[in-house]
Amino acid sequence: MAKRVAVVLAGCGVFDGSEIHEASAVLVHLSREGAQAEVYAPNIPQMHVVDHVKGQPTAEQRNVLVESARIARGNIKELAKLDVKGLDALIIPGGFGVAKNLSTWATQGKNCSISKEVEDVLRAFHAAHKPIGLCCISPVLAAKIFPGCEVTVGHDTECEQWPYAKTAESMKELGCRHVNSHVSEIHVDPRNRLVTTSAFMCNAPIHEIYDGIGKMVQEVVRLA
């Protein structure tokens, strides 16, 4: 039987939704591992819509589920309909949508709130001891919900290669253990069954990001 893995998206586009290359890499690697991806997204308005050419918010309004359906080629379900009993694992790609639509991390940092639907899903997989894969910024969700967990978002010292390293410090303040890692590496928290990798938290060649996500997906499927 193929492993059934829920993939939760947060829109379509790095600055206001899911990072498209990360989401695509997750789906490609799940296929390569012989797993069946089931894509979900919350049926909610986006926090805002960003013009990805100008890098500036616009007056437009878009829906997270509708935008996520672009990545899923229309084969998507509302997050509210996710049933953990029929699924073997969960993966959440990164992108600013995680910090804007799935949580309020973008505006409140460690004092953020997590969308109730998203928190309920994460807690359900955690309670069922089913593996959870998180990449890029999405490990902040685990840091907020599971105190004492171990994750990586890359490095904790800001530099040209690691422009978002302050995220790691905020996660430490929430009580989680951050483990520095290279973009092509993963970190596994066996107690919480969390598998994390930094992806686009690092200024790295896209193939290295792709490889790191591949290792994450492979380990999630192995643990499932």
From TrEMBL:
Entry-linked SUPFAM superfamilies: Class I glutamine amidotransferase-like
Organism taxonomic ancestry: Eukaryota, Metazoa, Chordata, Craniata, Vertebrata
Chain's gene name: Gatd3b
CDD domains registered for this protein in UniProt: GATase1_ES1
Matching NCBIfam families: PRK11780.1 (NF008747)
Protein name: GAL3B protein
